[in-house]
Amino acid sequence: MSTIQFFIYILTNVTKEVLYVGVTNNLPQRIAEHYMNKGSHKTFTGKYHCHYLLYFEKTQYADLAIKREKQIKGWNRKKKEELINSSNPEWNFLNEEIMEWPPNGDIISRELL
Fold first, then answer.
1. Cβ-count burial of 101 within 10 angstroms (0-12 exposed, 13-18 middle, 19+ buried)?
2. What pLDDT band is residue 1 in, cutting at 50, 70 and 90?
3. What pLDDT is stored for residue 3 in this prediction?
4. How far is 84 from 78, CA to CA, in rounded Å?
5. Quick check: is 41 in a domain?
6. Which domain holds residue 95?
């Protein structure tokens, strides 16, 4: 029996100037979707090229994940930085730790389904 997991995550751009907070039940898929949208002005992450993972946490409950995402989104940048620093003080990009990076073109965006 598999357990569904939900992820709250923080992405940034290559210069680490922008922070984006999101929630998903498939972190590698969602990051790949952000990556595939880079340069698109239709989405925040596309416009600002946010597809580098700095932080994530997981829970098995969707309602808790959504509540936590909203909580973190409400924080100022300093507090978000403190959260990232608590587990990733060097602000290393964590993409390669959870997925093939960069993702190949086989990713089908949920927006296309």
1. middle
2. low
3. 79
4. 10
5. yes
6. 6-104
pLDDT digits 0-9 by tens, 49-100: 999 999 999 999 999 999 999 999 999 999 999 999 999 999 999 999 999 9
What is the C-alpha separation between 105 and 21, in angstroms, rounded?
24
The answer to whether the beta carbons of residues 46 and 52 sit under 8 Å apart is no
pLDDT (0 to 100) of residue 109: 54
Q: Where do we find the tokens 């587990």?
A: 87
Any domain includes 48: yes
Give, as one character, the DSSP assignment of residue 113: -
Q: What is the pLDDT of residues 3-60, one digit of tens each?
A: 789 999 999 999 999 999 999 999 999 999 999 999 999 999 999 999 999 999 999 9
CATH number, domain with residue 64: 3.40.1440
Instruction: Give 62-69's long-range contacts (Cβ < 8 A, gap of 24+).
Output: 62/4, 62/6, 62/25, 64/6, 65/6, 65/7, 65/8, 65/23, 66/23, 68/8, 68/23, 69/8, 69/21, 69/22, 69/23
